[in-house]
Structures are given as structure tokens and as C-alpha cells.
Write a structure and sequence with these properties.
The protein is an alpha/beta fold. Helices cover 38% and strands 15% of the residues. It is built from 16 helices and 13 strands. The strands form 3 sheets. The protein has a 6-stranded mixed sheet. It has a 5-stranded mixed sheet with strand order 1-3-2-6-8. Strands 4-5 form a two-stranded antiparallel sheet. It starts with a helix and ends with a helix.
């Protein structure tokens, strides 16, 4: 079932359907497919109470929000009132329910979207595969034997399966883009700070991680981004981005946009079939007005994973031991989620200050120099197709993050959309995406280009 959040909201506002019908439909779809494991928790009474209140306001002729009656899921790394935030860690599964919404959830609720539950994630987002020892693996709706990606895999699977049209996500190394790509969605990571965080505790990966809404298309993502973006005083990194994402989608264009193409970024080793799909998509963009100004073999002075890994691993270690000692790791984390915290055990404060931050500056400087010559950088979205559940992959962790994490290090906006498909041995059609990157704070430029690319590639 394909849901468009704009249509759902229009139907609720107009009275074509009630908010109760919208929310009940989502709850029914979630209950009908438990094996997908996209949602980890629902609360029908809480959700339907909110829906009935919204219907009452509409009946009284009151003004309602742009997301009226849109059911949405909240990634289980983010707080929402009445739900336990487990972080995918058994140590938190028995915690008390949250007593506040994150600022992102609060802004969506203020626009009259309605929370219907929490979505699955690997423990603390430590893996590109959504699987944990609390709820198990989330299946990919397009190929049930393969991962839905991570760490926002529950959110991506829920949208791709048509359970809900909207979810929250977060992206510390590709965690919105990777699951969006493997589940056949478009995905958008903003410049860090466009969507504020503002939690009392500093996040594990600090400024490398960005929150944001997830939906099927850029047009839908833009509506939600306009709701959640904007300065928030409790987030020292938050920024006020002028303009509206909806306008950028409406003005979408490829005409005359200068594009640099980097097939490997200087270090990735893409599957030849993946590369062929992406190169064919590049020709489509060029045919529709984009100007391919150069092919860039090496973008960064060193592999971004070096500096990114120092920051991410040290933050992961501190987060992991906060809820239990090193001796608890085997009972709390799958092997795929242990790699990051264990790697951070012996990283020093000097490593963080000198190597991680200096590396981020160096990578950002090199990327800024490239953007003197182009408007958009295009790369493959991933090196290969998503792996099967809990099976070794010849690419290792780099199957997903080799192309994505660099743009967390540089805090730049990045988006993915489907470029084509590859058929696996089981006969499943697996989507292959291209990644599009713009300079920091050029999010609207990126949205205009990405929406145009989505339209000519779909």
C-alpha cells in the first residue's frame, strides 16, 4: 500500500476521512504484519485519543496543522511521551516511559501528526543493519531475506511496507540514507543543525549525527522538514535555514546544474553492477539538463572513516558502558553492534581533539574546494546490495557506509534516490541509489536537484 502524507493530511482536513480512520488504519496494518518487525511498540489507546481530539477540532472548524491526522513512527533512539526508549539495548527495555517528546517529535505533533508507535533500530544505531537482542531483525519489505539497512531501518521498512507514510530517523554515518536506499525510498540528511536535537545528554556521536523525517518521496520529506527545521535554543548547533523545502521541490530543476561525479571518492570499491546502474543514471541526469563538469577520483586527503571512526567509536564506547560494563556486551549487543564501542575503548581525549576534529576540518575544507568548481557532487549510494540477515558480507561494514559517512564528518547535506535495480539470486528486485551532496547550508539547492533527479529517474 502506497501512502502519501500530503494526501492523507488533505483528506483528514477536508473530512473525506477522519483522523480516527487514518490512525486505526495504520494500527491495523502494523498488527497485520508483525514479522516485518518495523515497529517495536504501539499504543492504540493513546493514538486514538489524539485522533479523536483532532477530529473534534476539525468538526468545530478550528485551524489544524499541515500534517493533520498523519500517523507516524518514532525511531527508538528518540523520546516520545508514553513510550520506552530502549535504544535497542536489553539494559533499557525495562525503563520507564518517556515523559517528554524530542523537539522533532514535538514539532510534528504540533503540526497535528499522530504518533502510532516506535520503530526498530540496532542498539544505539551502532550498525548499518537493523537488528538487536530486544526485537530481532527488521525485514526489508522488498526482499524479506535481506536487511532493511540501518540504523533507521525500522522507519524505512514501515514506510516502504505502507504501514505509515512518515517516520523519524537519524543519520550518524548514513542511517537515514542507507535504509532509504535499500527499501526503495528517497532519503535526505540535512546540514547538521537544520533539524535541532536539544536533548539534555550530548549524543554519542555529537555533531556527526543529524535527525530528520523519513518518507517515500522528496515532496513528502519537504513538507515534514518545513515543520521540524528551525533554531532551537537548547541546541547550540541549531541553525535557522532561510526558505522552504516545499518551494525547492516545486522549483526542482536539473538545468545548468554543475555536477561532479565521483565513482569511488578515492577509496570505495563498488560492485561493477552497482556502478553501472549509477553511471546510467548519471547519463539520464545529463540528458535532462545537468552539466557533468568533471569526474573526481579522490575527494578527501585521507579516508574519512579514520576521523569519523575515532569520534563515533569513542562516543559508542561511552554510551555502551553507561548502561552496563564491558562484560555485559555479549548479552546486550549483536557482534555487528559491538565493533564500534569496542574500537573506542582505548581512544584518548587527545585523539578526539586532534585527530577527529582536525580530520573533520580537513575533509570539510577539501569538499569546499570541490564545490568551488561544481554545485552538486554525485556518488553511488552504496558499494553493493544489502546483505542477508546475520550473514557475513565480503564488503564488511563498508557495504553501506563507505559512501555515506564522509558527509557526516563534513556536516554537509546529502540525499539518495533510486537509480535502478539489480535482481538477486532469489529473484528479488533490489533498488540501487545515487547519492547527491551539496555544500553546508545549501539544503534547498540540494532538495531542488534531488527532487528533479527523483522525477526523471522514477
Amino acid at each position: 500500500m502506497t501512502l502519501d502524507l500530503r494526501i492523507v493530511a488533505d483528506q483528514v482536513r477536508s473530512g473525506h476521512i477522519s483522523a480516527v480512520e487514518s490512525v486505526q488504519g495504520a494500527l491495523d496494518r502494523i498488527a497485520a504484519d508483525p514479522s516485518l518487525a518495523a515497529f517495536t511498540a504501539t499504543d492504540s489507546e493513546r493514538s486514538l485519543t489524539a485522533a479523536r481530539a483532532l477530529d473534534g477540532r476539525i468538526a468545530r472548524g478550528e485551524r489544524v496543522g499541515v500534517l493533520a491526522g498523519v500517523p507516524f513512527g518514532v525511531k527508538d533512539l528518540e523520546h516520545t511521551i508514553g513510550y520506552v526508549t530502549t535504544h535497542g539495548d536489553p539494559a533499557h527495555a525495562g525503563d520507564a516511559p518517556a515523559t517528554h517528546d524530542s523537539i522533532e517529535v514535538a514539532r510534528l505533533v504540533a503540526a497535528d501528526a499522530i504518533v502510532v508507535g516506535k520503530t526498530n533500530t540496532p542498539a544505539y544505531g551502532f550498525s548499518a543493519e537493523t537488528d538487536n537482542l530486544v526485537y530481532g531483525p527488521t525485514q526489508n519489505p522488498l526482499a524479506r531475506h535481506r536487511t532493511a539497512g540501518g540504523s533507521s531501518g525500522g522507519s524505512a521498512a514501515a514506510i516502504a511496507a505502507g504501514l505509515v507514510p512518515l517516520c523519524t530517523g537519524s543519520d550518524g554515518g548514513g542511517s537515514i540514507r542507507i535504509p532509504s536506499e535499500v527499501c526503495g525510498l528517497s532519503g535526505f540528511k540535512t546540514t547538521h543543525g537544520v533539524v535541532p536535537v536539544g536533548e539534555a545528554n550530548y549524543g554519542a556521536w555529537g555533531p556527526f549525527s543529524a535527525r530528520g523525517p523519513m518518507a517515500r518521496t522528496f515532496g513528502e520529506i519537504a513538507v515534514a522538514l518545513d515543520v521540524v527545521k528551525g533554531f532551537f535554543g537548547r541546541d547550540m548547533l541549531s541553525i535557522e535555514l532561510p526558505g522552504m523545502f516545499r518551494d525547492a521541490v516545486a522549483d526542482r530543476s536539473l538545468e545548468g546544474v554543475r555536477v561532479a561525479w565521483s565513482p569511488t571518492l578515492g577509496f570505495a570499491k563498488p560492485n561493477p553492477d552497482v556502478l553501472a546502474v549509477c553511471e546510467a543514471a548519471l547519463l539520464v541526469l545529463e540528458k535532462n539538463g545537468a552539466v557533468i563538469v568533471e569526474t573526481v577520483e579522490k575527494v578527501f586527503p585521507e579516508r574519512p572513516v579514520v576521523s569519523w571512526g575515532i569520534r563515533a567509536s569513542r562516543g559508542s564506547w561511552l554510551t555502551a558502558i553507561d548502561a552496563g560494563g564491558r562484560e555485559t556486551f555479549d548479552s546486550r549487543f549483536l557482534p555487528s553492534a559491538q565493533f564500534s564501542p569496542i574500537s573506542g575503548e582505548n581512544i584518548t581525549d587527545a585523539d578526539l581533539l586532534i585527530r577527529a576534529e582536525a580530520g573533520a576540518h580537513s575533509a570539510g575544507y577539501a569538499l569546499a574546494e570541490l564545490f568551488d568548481r561544481c554545485d552538486i557532487l554525485v556518488t553511488p549510494g552504496m558499494a553493493t546490495i544489502p546483505p542477508r540477515h546475520r550473514e557475513p558480507n565480503e564488503y564488511g561494514p563498508g557495504w553501506a557506509a563507505d559512501y555515506t559517512l564522509a558527509f557526516n564528518l563534513t556536516r554537509t547535506p546529502a540525499a539518495v534516490t533510486t537509480a535502478g535495480f539489480i535482481t538477486d539470486l532469489e529473484g528479488s528486485q533490489l533498488p540501487i541509489g545515487i547519492q547527491m551532496v551539496a555544500p553546508r547550508c545549501a539544503d534547498l539547492r540540494l532538495m531542488s536537484f534531488a527532487a528533479a533527479a527523483e522525477s526523471v529517474l522514477s
